[in-house]
């Protein structure tokens, strides 16, 4: 199962990836756009960190199905949410 | 909210009783009489204990499957009565009010659509999946038997809410799609829409769990040697449907919960004012709604595949193609939802892209039709009733598919959307596609479940009535749609429409004869069950594992787990003479014990729904607490299995 | 009302329909006939065909059965792309300057405003034949769908939003238009008269509307907004400036309130 | 009771874990659609207050910290159970519950504060979407807490076994999943409002 080392590494990474966007927002040391990008990137990386270190999503090994079902879910989420934003944005633009 | 809400009864008062119209009143009476009649019958026969231990608390997938189908049957009576009432109304209502007041007509089309999709087709499909899939993959049960019972009971709770709305209060008038802002409190106060929301929400939870259950069952509990590419087509389609379920149903949950929040807590997701956006409801609803129609039709495709191979006495043509086509349809079905609202006003790029995506589904679907055709080619076709339904399906479904493709072309959709052309399209998919499929499956697997065959003559009669009835009832609607007749019309002033509407009414009457024939078939067969007995377990010269065991199967399904070496495993073993399963195992088998958790959670779900509909908050929270307590209580309970010894004459269905 | 009138949009949509229909028949009719033929020829009781129980694959057939639908959908897809852009309801029709008409869906009737003529009507809309029409559409109530079947096209009407539809009539005549989207008890009767007339008749009609003495204002709009079934045709000889836009903006307004109280054109 | 062999037990657990994972995928879609809806409605203020007028950085940071640490403690609880230390398992589980309860308490305080300022969920489309998204996450956390407390009771009664460890493992998955959702919440809903 998961070793103590894995847990602690995961936690350390998560802390860094959480603190970073918070500090950036509080300190305002980047232009607005830049901070938004930073938030987005750290969020995606941190989600990956959680998935890998805590949720047992791995490329090989006994939980392989987790990765494939997760990827499938991601594709569908991309279609649904991306589609929603596209469609609703287009409608908004045509009706306002 | 201006209504009086009392602590004890919420907004439930004496005016909830259906004394507002004689039609509603008689409907309520029939519902009550049906329920009471059933209770009296069971009491009179002294069968309560047998019913409770044999069925209601059973976690055997076969019994749960049968209960699902019985539920579907009860609901279909309601659904059909609604349908024929609408047809009669429209046949009469030229420049007059017909016999139904508008508000009643609206409840009828709403409940017809809701019942048919959620409480007729879905349970029917789930019932067939339940009964057949474990048998087809050589498994002793589904992965989570108790969860399976809970799913069933939640579905039943939803159906119960749906039925009780006829007696206490009213049902929604907003159609099966419940579009806001019309379905919001501003335009439809009262309990109707709430009944709609909670009945589908509660059954939707059950459906999601069914989806999970069957994915795990199919991926984990196959007999040794049953590779994915050796699975029977019905199992494949069941898998794809289950995948669609777990990914599509959240969209239904989200859209209906938000509607409920708007209605009960005064939020503004979909209201006209205060920053609501009703377009997002349609968006979310159809993200679920479109996959839903494939959730229904894919298993039917699976049944047709089994039936066509068995009754052509031939291997299924193009099995890999059929598998790929199924998965492609499943994935594509998530990319087309906008075709239900081309006329909302999106730009040409959006409409064109969704239109093209929609039409692309015709490719894999066409492949399937051709593969069935070539399965028949060079076969030895036996025209048993299931096969008749299959051939009828192939001829009619392509017509409905064609009208679907026409609707998918946005400029054509602009003039056919919301007309009866659309009504004709989807009945043309659902009746020959979904319903014929399920009926074929019912007649095909009935001998497996009950140990005797169904009468052939009445089966054929039923088929012909359905076929002709369907053509008469729905072909005129294509023409009417092109003449500009909108759907959901209570009255109309165009005399040109009436003749066609009368034809449609006659068609519905023929369909009624088709249903009567089904009942007759069942009746006649039960009376002659000794003559129709199936002693071999394999009445059709079947090809898949479910036919390798006795009819009806023992509780543990397989005396010993079969070892699969080829695609049509049972057919293969009949040819090579290799026995699939060796002698019964010496070890006792563990079979899950009956559990009361299912009925309890079903009752809890009903309370939650009823409380939420009527604002009886204590009831809602009591139901919630009961459900949580039941789950927690159960988790403390370890002794969940009993031993059985195959080979000993244990009782079976 | 006889729906004999047609216009360029209806004609184009119809033509596309028949075109697509005919193309698909090329496949669908053979499929149906083949199904029946094969079923009959290979019937167990006395069929003629050879029996090959293990025959389950054929490269050529596989390619054909994937190929035919792909080609058909390929053709259809190009039509879809082209026609959807050409027949975008927002796209103005070529020709003369369009007549601007604003339509507001109410329970259960239609209010039409002619912003350039400064008049408004209920449940009747008239326009000169062969002149492009440009509708702006909204709703005060539940979602509606605006359609004049004889002229083709259909588009939703939603509160706080504006959609557009461009139509044209090629012949003189009377048509029926209506709400296509179920919206409550009066839905079945929520129709309006659409009259296409010669330029001269149209001018006379406008004068007739103008000669009345009722103005569209807060009071009369509030009265009109009350739900009613099968409301009679009515005329308003004057309309406040930007009435339509203000009705749209009303729902997006800053005030926290529930719609239903009708203050014709605040903000 | 018949003691099922460990192998069978393990297979059953594996199936349950897979089923639970599928449930999480389904729930992920649900949350994604809530996020999508939130994005669609994010400018529908209808004259009401927006996030920048409402949100409090200290509160947000505390909530985030509590949840983040709880994801460590629950992992430690599972590790302890897996290596057979009952007392340690219980200890970490209790700490997790406390952290989770702290998070919930802050959330309830924050949301009821909004309601008191006439910025409740009925105020605008934006606030409806906000309350529903954050509230759904909060409800999940509540469910996780009830689950964790049930497990504590069961550990006390049944001690550590394969089945109990597997149950705890599923709770761990659930808890980490909620943490992921929270990453989405603070990144998409909260932080941009402070810019
Ligand atoms: C599964 C879906 C389903 C099915 C089967 C049907 C079947 C039928 N439908 Fe329905 N219909 C809908 C789904 C369905 N419908 C939906 C979604 C709507 C839209 C609602 C809305 O507007 O919101 C609608 C609307 C609709 C309308 C309204 C049209 C309008 O808007 O103007 C009408 C009008 O007459 C109609 C008629 C019929 C008729 C006559 C049948 C009959 O032909 C068929 C009768 C069928 C049965 C009674 C079921 C038979 C089942 C069995 C026989 C099982 C037997 C099983 C065993 C023996 C084990 N339907
Ligand atoms: C089981 C149910 C089912 C099925 C299978 C389908 C299948 C399809 N549907 Fe249908 N549909 C519904 C049930 C179904 N539908 C329902 C219930 C509604 C309305 C709900 C409501 O509003 O109340 C609806 C509404 C609906 C709309 C919205 C219309 C509107 O609201 O204006 C559209 C538009 O694109 C559409 C299209 C299609 C298409 C393209 C297919 C395709 O999948 C069909 C593919 C099949 C074929 C094409 C036939 C076989 C193919 C060949 C033989 C190959 C050769 C042919 C060609 C290349 C063309 N459907
Ligand atoms: Cu569409 Cu605002
Ligand atoms: Cu669809």
Automatic annotation (TrEMBL), chain A:
GO terms for molecular function: cytochrome bo3 ubiquinol oxidase activity; proton transmembrane transporter activity. It is found in: Cell membrane. Keywords: Cell membrane, Electron transport, Membrane, Oxidoreductase, Transmembrane, Transmembrane helix, Transport. The keyword Iron does not apply. The keyword DNA repair does not apply. Pfam families: COX4_pro. The chain crosses the membrane at residues 7-30, 36-55, 67-88. It is a multi-pass membrane protein. GO terms for cellular component: cytochrome o ubiquinol oxidase complex; plasma membrane. Belongs to the cytochrome c oxidase bacterial subunit 4 family. Cytochrome bo(3) ubiquinol terminal oxidase is the component of the aerobic respiratory chain of E.coli that predominates when cells are grown at high aeration. Has proton pump activity across the membrane in addition to electron transfer, pumping 2 protons/electron. This is Cytochrome bo(3) ubiquinol oxidase subunit 4. It comes from Roseovarius albus.
From TrEMBL, chain B:
CDD domains: Ubiquinol_Oxidase_I. Residues 46-565 form the Cytochrome oxidase subunit I profile domain. It is found in: Cell membrane. The keyword Transcription does not apply. It is a multi-pass membrane protein. Its main location: membrane. SUPFAM superfamilies: Cytochrome c oxidase subunit I-like. One of its GO terms (biological process) is electron transport coupled proton transport. The keyword Transferase does not apply. Its EC number is 1.10.3.10. Pfam families: COX1. Keywords: Cell membrane, Copper, Electron transport, Heme, Iron, Membrane, Metal-binding, Oxidoreductase, Respiratory chain, Transmembrane, Transmembrane helix, Transport. This is Cytochrome bo(3) ubiquinol oxidase subunit 1. The gene is cyoB.
Automatic annotation (TrEMBL), chain C:
Belongs to the cytochrome c oxidase subunit 2 family. Pfam families: COX_ARM. It is a multi-pass membrane protein. Residues 1-91 form the Cytochrome oxidase subunit II transmembrane region profile domain. The gene is cyoA. CDD domains: CuRO_UO_II (cd04212). GO terms for molecular function: copper ion binding; cytochrome bo3 ubiquinol oxidase activity; cytochrome-c oxidase activity; oxidoreductase activity, acting on diphenols and related substances as donors, oxygen as acceptor. The chain crosses the membrane at residues 20-40, 60-81. One of its GO terms (biological process) is ATP synthesis coupled electron transport. This is Ubiquinol oxidase subunit 2.
From TrEMBL, chain D:
One of its GO terms (cellular component) is plasma membrane. Coiled coil: none annotated. Residues 1-194 form the Heme-copper oxidase subunit III family profile domain. GO terms for biological process: aerobic electron transport chain. GO terms for molecular function: cytochrome-c oxidase activity. Its main location: membrane. The keyword Transmembrane applies. It is found in: Cell membrane. It is a multi-pass membrane protein. Keywords: Cell membrane, Membrane, Transmembrane, Transmembrane helix. InterPro entries: Cyt_c/ubiquinol_Oxase_su3 (IPR024791), Cyt_c_oxidase-like_su3 (IPR000298), Cyt_c_oxidase_su3-like_sf (IPR035973), Cyt_c_oxidase_su3_a-hlx (IPR013833). Heterooctamer of two A chains, two B chains, two C chains and two D chains. PANTHER family: CYTOCHROME BO(3) UBIQUINOL OXIDASE SUBUNIT 3, CYTOCHROME C OXIDASE SUBUNIT III. This is Cytochrome bo(3) ubiquinol oxidase subunit 3.
């Amino acid at each position: 199962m998961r070793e103590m080392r894995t847990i602690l590494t995961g936690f350390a990474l998560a802390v860094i990836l959480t603190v970073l966007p918070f500090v950036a927002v509080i300190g305002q040391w980047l232009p607005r756009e830049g901070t938004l990008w930073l938030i987005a990137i750290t969020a995606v990386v941190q989600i990956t960190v959680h998935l890998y270190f805590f949720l047992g999503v791995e490329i090989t090994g006994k939980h392989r199905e987790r990765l494939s079902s997760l990827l499938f879910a991601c594709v569908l989420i991309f279609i649904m949410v991306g589609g929603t934003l596209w469609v609703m944005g287009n409608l908004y633009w045509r009706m306002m | 909210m201006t209504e009086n809400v009392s602590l004890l009864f919420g907004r439930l008062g004496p005016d909830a009783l259906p004394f507002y119209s004689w039609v509603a009143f008689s409907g309520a009476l029939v519902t009550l009489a049906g329920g009471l009649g059933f209770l009296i019958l069971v009491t009179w026969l002294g069968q309560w204990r047998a019913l409770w231990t044999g069925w209601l608390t059973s976690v055997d997938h076969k019994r749960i499957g049968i209960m699902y189908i019985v539920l579907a049957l009860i609901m279909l009576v309601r659904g059909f009565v609604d349908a024929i009432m609408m047809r009669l109304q429209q046949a009469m209502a030229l420049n007059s009010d017909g016999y139904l007041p508008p508000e009643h007509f609206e409840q009828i089309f709403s409940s017809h659509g809701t019942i048919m999709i959620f409480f007729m087709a879905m349970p029917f499909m789930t019932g067939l999946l339940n009964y057949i899939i474990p048998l087809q993959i050589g498994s002793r049960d589904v992965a989570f038997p108790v969860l399976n019972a809970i799913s069933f009971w939640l579905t039943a709770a939803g159906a119960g809410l749906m039925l009780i709305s006829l007696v206490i209060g009213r049902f929604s008038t907003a159609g099966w799609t419940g579009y806001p802002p019309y379905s919001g409190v501003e335009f439809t106060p009262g309990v109707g829409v709430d009944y709609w929301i909670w009945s589908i929400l509660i059954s939707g939870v059950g459906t999601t769990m069914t989806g999970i259950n069957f994915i795990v069952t199919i991926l984990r509990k196959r007999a040794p040697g049953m590779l994915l590419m050796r699975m029977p087509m019905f199992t494949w389609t069941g898998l794809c449907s289950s995948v669609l379920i777990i990914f599509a149903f959240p969209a239904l949950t989200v859209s209906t919960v938000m509607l409920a929040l708007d209605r009960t807590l005064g939020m503004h997701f979909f209201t006209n004012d205060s920053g609501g956006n009703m377009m997002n409801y349609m968006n979310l609803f159809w993200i679920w709604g479109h996959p839903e129609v494939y959730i229904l039709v894919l298993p039917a495709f699976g049944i047709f595949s089994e039936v066509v191979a068995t009754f052509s006495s031939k291997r299924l043509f193009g099995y890999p193609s059929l598998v790929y086509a199924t998965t492609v349809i499943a994935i594509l079905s998530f990319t087309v939802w906008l075709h239900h609202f081309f006329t909302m006003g999106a730009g040409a790029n959006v409409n064109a892209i969704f239109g093209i995506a929609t039409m692309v589904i015709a490719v894999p679907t066409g492949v399937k039709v051709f593969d069935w055709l070539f399965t028949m080619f060079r076969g030895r076709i036996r025209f048993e009733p299931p096969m008749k339904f299959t051939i009828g399906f192939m001829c009619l479904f392509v017509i409905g598919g064609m009208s679907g493709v026409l609707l998918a072309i946005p400029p054509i959709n602009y003039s056919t959307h919301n007309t009866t052309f659309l009504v004709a399209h989807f009945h043309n998919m659902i009746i020959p596609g979904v319903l014929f499929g399920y009926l074929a499956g019912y007649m095909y697997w009935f001998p497996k479940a009950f140990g005797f065959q169904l009468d052939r003559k009445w089966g054929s009669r039923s088929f012909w009535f359905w076929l002709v009835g369907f053509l008469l009832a729905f072909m005129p609607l294509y023409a009417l749609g092109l003449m500009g007749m909108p759907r959901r019309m209570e009255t109309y002033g165009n005399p040109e429409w009436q003749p066609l509407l009368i034809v449609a009414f006659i068609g519905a009457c023929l369909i009624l004869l088709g249903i009567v024939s089904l009942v007759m078939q069942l009746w006649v067969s039960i009376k002659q069950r000794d003559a129709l007995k199936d002693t071999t377990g394999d009445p059709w010269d079947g090809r898949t594992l479910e036919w390798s065991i006795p009819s009806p199967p023992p509780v543990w399904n397989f005396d010993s787990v079969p070892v699969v070496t080829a695609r049509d495993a049972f057919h293969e073993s009949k040819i090579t003479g290799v026995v699939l399963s060796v002698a019964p195992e010496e070890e006792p088998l563990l079979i899950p014990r009956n559990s009361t958790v299912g009925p309890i959670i079903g009752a809890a779900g009903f309370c939650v729904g009823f409380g939420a509909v009527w604002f009886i908050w204590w009831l809602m929270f009591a139901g919630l607490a009961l459900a949580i307590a039941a789950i927690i209580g159960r988790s403390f309970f370890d002794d969940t299995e009993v031993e059985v010894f195959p080979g000993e004459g244990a009782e079976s269905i | 009302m006889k729906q004999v009138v047609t216009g360029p949009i209806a004609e184009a949509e119809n033509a596309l329909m028949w075109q697509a229909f005919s193309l698909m028949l090329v496949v669908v009719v053979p499929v149906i006939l083949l199904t029946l033929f094969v079923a009959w020829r290979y019937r167990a009781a006395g069929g003629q065909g050879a029996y090959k129980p293990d025959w389950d694959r054929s490269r050529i057939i596989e390619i054909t059965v994937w190929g035919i639908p792909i080609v058909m959908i390929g053709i259809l897809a190009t039509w879809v792309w082209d026609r959807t852009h050409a027949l975008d309801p927002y796209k103005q029709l070529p020709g003369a300057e369009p007549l601007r008409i604003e339509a507001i869906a109410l329970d259960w009737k239609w209010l039409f405003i002619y912003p350039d003529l400064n008049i408004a009507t209920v449940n009747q809309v008239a326009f000169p034949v062969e002149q492009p029409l440009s509708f702006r559409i909204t709703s005060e109530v539940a979602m509606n769908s605006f359609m004049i079947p004889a002229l083709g096209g259909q588009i939703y009407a939603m509160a706080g939003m504006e959609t557009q539809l461009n139509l044209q009539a090629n012949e003189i005549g009377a048509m029926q238009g209506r709400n296509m989207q179920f919206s409550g008890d009066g839905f079945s009767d929520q129709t309006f008269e659409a009259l296409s007339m010669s330029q001269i008749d149209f001018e006379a009609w406008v004068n007739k509307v103008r000669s009345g003495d009722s103005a569209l204002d807060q009071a009369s709009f509030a009265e009109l907004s009350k739900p009613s079934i099968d409301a009679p045709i009515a005329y308003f000889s004057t309309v406040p400036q930007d009435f339509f836009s203000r009705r749209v903006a009303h729902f997006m307004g800053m005030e926290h309130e529930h719609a239903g109280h009708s203050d014709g054109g605040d903000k | 009771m018949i003691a099922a062999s460990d192998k069978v037990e393990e297979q059953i657990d594996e199936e349950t874990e897979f089923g639970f994972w599928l449930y999480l995928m389904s729930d992920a879609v649900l949350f994604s659609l809530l996020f999508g809806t939130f994005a669609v409605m994010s400018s529908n203020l209808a004259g009401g207050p927006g996030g920048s007028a409402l949100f409090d950085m200290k509160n947000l940071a505390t909530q985030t910290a509590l949840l983040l640490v709880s994801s460590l403690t629950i992992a430690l609880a599972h590790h302890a159970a897996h290596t057979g230390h009952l007392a340690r398992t219980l200890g970490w589980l209790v700490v997790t519950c406390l952290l989770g309860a702290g998070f919930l308490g802050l959330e309830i305080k924050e949301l009821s504060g909004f309601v008191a300022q006439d910025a409740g969920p009925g105020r605008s489309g934006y606030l409806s979407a906000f309350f529903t998204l954050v509230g759904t996450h909060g409800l999940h956390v509540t469910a996780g807490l009830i689950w964790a407390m049930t497990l504590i009771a069961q550990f006390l009664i049944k001690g550590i076994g394969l089945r109990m460890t597997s149950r705890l493992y599923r709770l761990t998955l659930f808890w980490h999943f909620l943490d992921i959702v929270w990453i989405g919440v603070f990144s998409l809903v909260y932080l941009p409002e402070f810019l």
